[in-house]
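ENTRY TYPE: paired fold submission
RECORD: A
CONTENT: sequence, then structure tokens
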Amino acid sequence: MDLHSLALSILVLYIVVDPVGNIPLFMAVTSRIGEGARRRVLSLSVVVASLILAFFALVGVEFFAYFGVGLGDFMVASGLVLAAFSLLYLLRPYEAPVSEGVEVAVVPLAVPYLSGPASISYVLVLSNQYGKVFALVVIVAVAALTYLTLSASRYVMKALGVIGIRVVEKIMLVVSVAIGVSLVRKGVALWLSEGAV
């Protein structure tokens, strides 16, 4: 297993999942529950999101391959989805969440914030390009980093403040758009090299 590719993939998926940008949401939806319940919400949301990503890592490639979708197709589609959703979140106005409590562990924390279309698309690319074991290792590593990041949400919020969090979120979203464009470019290059275009 190529450690450089592994480290880069972990970094990219971490940026796509964007736990730092999700700190205000996590703080808001758990503001009226105790510390124990907050930990349960965090654990459940990370586990559910990881299981969703693992499911697509294990069976997503075969499912789409059944319909004749190849690696180049994956890369172009995933790049478009990643860029589109990153732009959507980059340009949207901030909206305060309306739900609170343990029930938010699945929606909206696990889905769509921690395991949305962009992260699912990137996991599909990893699984197709590097294999299922590689993709699962990346998912587990990012899940651990996400848990640690959101566990320290109070400290991060105090250190950066709401404006600082928003700045970090916007930077990560810009990087996500660039990653999406890169995937599209590589997918088109693969098409051309295979004579598919």
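RECORD: B
CONTENT: sequence, then structure tokens
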Amino acid sequence: MPRRARLEAPGTLHHVILRGIEKRRIVNDVADRKNFVKRLGELSADTDTNIYAWAPMTNHAHILLRSSEIGLSGFMRRFLTGYAISWKIGVKS
């Protein structure tokens, strides 16, 4: 049974669950967790997105947010692209 379409209206409350591909790690240590939270906070301030709760865990994360004009997909695209790039750089060094 297919999933129903996501409601994309600004101001909608969303519980977002993100997971590493094949359940791989998305954070390795405390520095990664701090980077995750820092980037989440900076982007939420830039986009007027309200973040109510977050929980970055080893191979997945939960975020409770209220979307803004940029929408959920725009916010998550910007957040995850930036985080993935910074995470890859951290893993290589």
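NOTES ON RECORD B: The helical segments are 30-47, 71-92. The chain has a mean pLDDT of 91.
STATUS: closed
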